Amino acid sequence: MSYVDITLPRLALALGLIAVAIVLSRRGRLGLEKDLLWGALRGAAQLIAIGYVLLLLFNHERPWWVLLLLSVMVVAAAVTAARRVERGPSRRVLFPRALAAISLGALVALVPVFLAIVPLHPWYEAHYLIPISGMMLSNAMNVVALVFERIFAAASTEADQIEALLALGATPRQALARQVRATLRAALLPTINGLLTVGLVALPGMMTGQIVSGTPPTQAVRYQIVILYQLVAVAAVSGWLAAAFARRLLFTGRAQLVLPPRIGL
Amino acid sequence: MREGRRILDGASILVRAGEAVAIEGPSGSGKSSFARALATLTEVDSGIVLLDGRDVHELAPTDYRKRVAFLAQQPAMFAGTVRENLESGPTLHGKALDPAKALALLESVGLDASFLQREARSLSGGEKQRVALARALANEPEVLLLDEPAAALDPVAGGLIVALIRQLARGGLSVVMVTHVAGHAQALGGTRYRCERGRVLRAGQAEE
Q1: Which phi and psi (to 5°) does residue A153 adopt?
Q2: Residue B145: Cβ within 10 Å count
């Protein structure tokens, strides 16, 4: 197994790519220079840190350390997904729901695969568990954030429709059905599009990484297929749960629509 | 109560079967909140709504709202045709709307069969109000609550809607109409209440 070693000076050279974007941002007056620089540095710092954490973890593979890292990842995903949603409830209200939606979605996608398709020995084998879980959590995070964002926005702009349905005797589920459907379709589309373009346009990260570091491409693609299917499952389950939680927040027990700022006071 | 402010206090009305009631008052007097509270679309902090002597909290909200229809000031049309809009109430309750019934409903609000296939959202304000009325009637309610049904319409269309509502009340439907136009309250016929600074007071009987 051989790969080209990236030395630190060479890594620093890659910042030139960010510089290109910064120059364009300046010329186009996009005002993104600070964000670009901060994002580039923060992303690098986070990755370098996780690199050392993983190194440490691989050398001292203990179930508690693996579980601790997974928990940190889940919480970080939930915090991000529960970011202040415009016209939605507060972060404090959304966080536990994001946490539940993300964890349950990830569990559904991960447990069967690690039991039957890529069996782990021992079960906490960090080489597989951490990167694959990370991909699931990040997809779940994006889907949940999108579902929250869209559903509360739709409920607020289409409140008169929803109330008209309630006035006709609709249950909250019936009254919000159209908005839930549209939201879930939008949330699942990127993942489905990923399935359609993979290999044609995009060579996904995990596969690329495996190939670069020497795994035979034929095996790398099998891993990638499993992962793509897992991403579909995680998006479906997490999205569906997030929509169900949002619906419960939007209606009282007496089937009345409650819109922010009144929800989750 | 909203943001700690009492919107309504000491508001009480009695509506008998087949009775027409008008609640009039200036905007901001709390009459719309009162109508929404009667429709159970807004939770009230205190006070009760009784239907046939039963507290609405004993009834499922879906059943209550099927029996007590509510029309907002500018009722939202659902995407699709007028026919689909008329069918929406029965569909929600797992029933189908008979085509003959759909036509009869449309005629009862003064529209003809040509409207069935029209796109509901492309109708004029007055037509929408009529379709919303027919849509509410498709559930065969016992009570009809209307929040300013004529406010968004020009005087002529508004007058026609009020006349139509009066006709429905004569047909045996209990009607509660909230309005800021004294003439409309008068035109409805029946009992009149005035809403002032969150209080609903009986104002008398409209002359026939």
Answers
A1: -65, -45
A2: 28
The full 3-state SS of chain A, as one line of letters, equals CCCCCCCHHHHHHCHHHHHHHHHHHHHCCCCCHHHHHHHHHHHHHHHHHHHHHHHHHHHCCCHHHHHHHHHHHHHHHHHHHCCCCCCCCCHHHHHHHHHHHHHHHHHHHHHHHHHHHCCCCCCCCHHHHHHHHHHHHHHHHHHHHHHHHHHHHHHHHCHHHHHHHHHCCCCHHHHCHHHHHHHHHHHHHHHHHHHHHECCCECCHHHHHHHHCCCCHHHHHHHHHHHHHHHHHHHHHHHHHHHHHHHHHHECCCCCECCCCCCCC
Element (H, E) at B190: strand B190-196
Query: Among candidates A234, A101, A185, which has minimal Cα distance to A193?
Result: A185
Each of the 208 residues of chain B gets a pLDDT tens digit; together they read 344 455 566 667 788 878 899 988 887 777 888 889 889 998 877 777 888 778 888 889 999 999 999 999 889 999 999 999 999 999 999 999 999 999 999 998 889 999 999 999 999 988 999 999 999 999 999 999 999 988 888 888 888 889 989 988 888 899 999 998 888 888 888 888 888 776 777 777 765 4
Separation between Cα atoms, residue A248 and residue B77, nearest integer Å: 25
Establish, for the pair of chains A and B, how many residue pairs have beta carbons separated by less than 8 Å.
Answer: 65
Q: Judge: A165–B88 Cβ closer than 8 Å, yes or no.
A: yes
B114 CA to chain A: closest CA distance, Å? 24
Query: CA–CA separation, A165 vs A176, rounded Å?
Result: 9
Give, as one character, the DSSP assignment of residue B202.
E
Query: Is the Cβ pair A170, B66 closer than 8 Å?
Result: no
Nearest C-alpha in A relative to B39 = A167
pTM of the model as a whole: 0.86
Interface test with B, best of A168, A173, A265 (most B CBs within 10 A): A168
A169 near B CB under 8 A:
yes
Asked if omega into A204 is within 30° of 0 (cis), the reply is no
User: Which residues from chain A sit within 8 angstroms of residue B69, using beta carbons?
Assistant: 167-168
Shortest CA distance from A257: residue in chain B:
B41
Q: CB distance from A177 to chain B under 8 Å?
A: no
| Beta-bridge partner residues of B175 | B20, B144
CB within 8 Å: A164 and B72: yes
Q: Give, in degrees to the nearest 5, the angle at Cα B185 between B183 and B190.
A: 130
ipTM associated with this complex: 0.91
Q: Do B61 and A170 touch (CB under 8 A)?
A: no
